[in-house]
Specification:
This protein is an alpha/beta fold. It has a domain of 57 residues. The chain contains three helices and eight strands; from the N terminus they run ββββαβααβββ.
């Protein structure tokens, strides 16, 4: 079964029915009904292919899997890769999850926005992401100066 995503809504292409909603922050997926939960592995694979991680699953009208008010234990900072420095993917994800304000400051994040998902030259949907002055594993760069190659990740590197 194939899926598509538009404005965080995941739709089954075979039946044309909305299966649920992906919430990029805090990385949860909410099924619209109990019957759709049987597609959890397929939806998970689809979202993973698009670069979305799901940490908690729930169903509309039911209690979420994660306990509210549970104490968050912050793991130690991941090591930085000498090649990527502060843009090491594990470090970027750790910053976003445990130190959101520092993440926003370090990468010049101005907010959230949508970018197209392109496969084989065809736009198959849109995904929500952070927008800022740096392109990282979790953010997209905007407002490139005229003539600047969009494949360059960060023209304002520290």
């Amino acid at each position: 079964m194939s899926y598509s995503i538009s404005n965080s809504n995941v739709v089954s292409n075979a039946k044309g029915v909305e299966v649920g909603v992906y919430h990029p922050y805090p990385m949860t997926f909410t099924f619209n009904d109990k019957a759709s939960e049987r597609f959890k592995s397929q939806v998970s694979g689809f979202l993973k292919r698009l670069g979305h991680k799901v940490e908690a699953w729930d169903t509309a009208g039911e209690e979420p899997e994660a306990e509210p008010g549970a104490e968050v234990v912050i793991p130690p900072q991941p090591k930085l890769n000498p090649k990527w420095g502060h843009k090491t993917p594990g470090y970027v994800r750790w910053l976003e999850k445990y130190h959101l304000e520092e993440f926003k400051t370090r990468f010049g994040i101005t907010g959230r926005g949508t970018v197209p998902i392109v496969e084989d030259g065809v736009t198959i949907g849109h995904r929500e992401t952070w927008i800022g002055r740096c392109k990282t594993v979790l953010s997209e760069k905007v407002n490139l100066p005229p003539g600047m190659d969009p494949n360059l990740y960060d023209i304002n590197a520290e």
